[in-house]
What does this fold into?
Amino acid sequence: MSRRPYIRPISKTTWYMRNKRYKVYVMRELSSFLVGFYTFYTICALAILAMGSAEKWDSFLASQQSTGMVIFHGLALLYFLFFQTFPWFKLAPKAMPVQIGEKKLPDSYIIVGHYVAWVLISAFIFWLAGVI
Amino acid sequence: MAIAKKAIVWGLFAAGGTITAFVVPALITLFLLVAMGNVPDGLQFELFHAFASSWLGKACLFIVLFLSVWHAAHRLRVVAHDFGIRKDALIASAVYTVAAIGTVLTAFYLLSIG
It folds into this structure.
């Protein structure tokens, strides 16, 4: 090693702006804010539900109705699908390869399996919530 | 961080990532419906309170919220590093403390329903 090794200057705060791959990575990682936000939002809803009063619950639901919230949830849903759900399904065969005997199950089977399971789980939640 | 601890945190991250990928889009859609003023029947007080009163309902809500909060905590720790914050010990204790508080609150509210 030389006595004065060259250290390439790389910004610690904007390094991901250099190429598309890094930008996508950072976009994907930022979806963790949405996970945190919706978790605590749901916990707040449970806190109000735990008060055990129908009036308080109804006024909470009414307080959440606004155009701003519709836009926020709509954008959050799209962001979450494209930067959390779909990438997670895409990397599933790499994270959990399935081997049967000598052969490995093709990646596409695992990915399609995830999408099918996702549709069924979502349908179950919507059925449970009385949407469908 | 010790390897033993890392395995637990990483396990929660992986399980949380899977469950959030599957469940959170539906959850956001329900909030979207509420925001639009079309409150689904299952989220009306009587039915939702009954759901959260049942042990199965409590278990579902707890598993989803518990794994989500730890998943978010672990990833936000990495996000902090990615954005140039190099105080990992401080960030780790902050995010995991918030996750622990979230877990305790979820358990407390669920147990106090019904």
About this structure: The mean pLDDT of chain B is 94. Chain B touches chain A through 56 residues (CB under 8 Å).
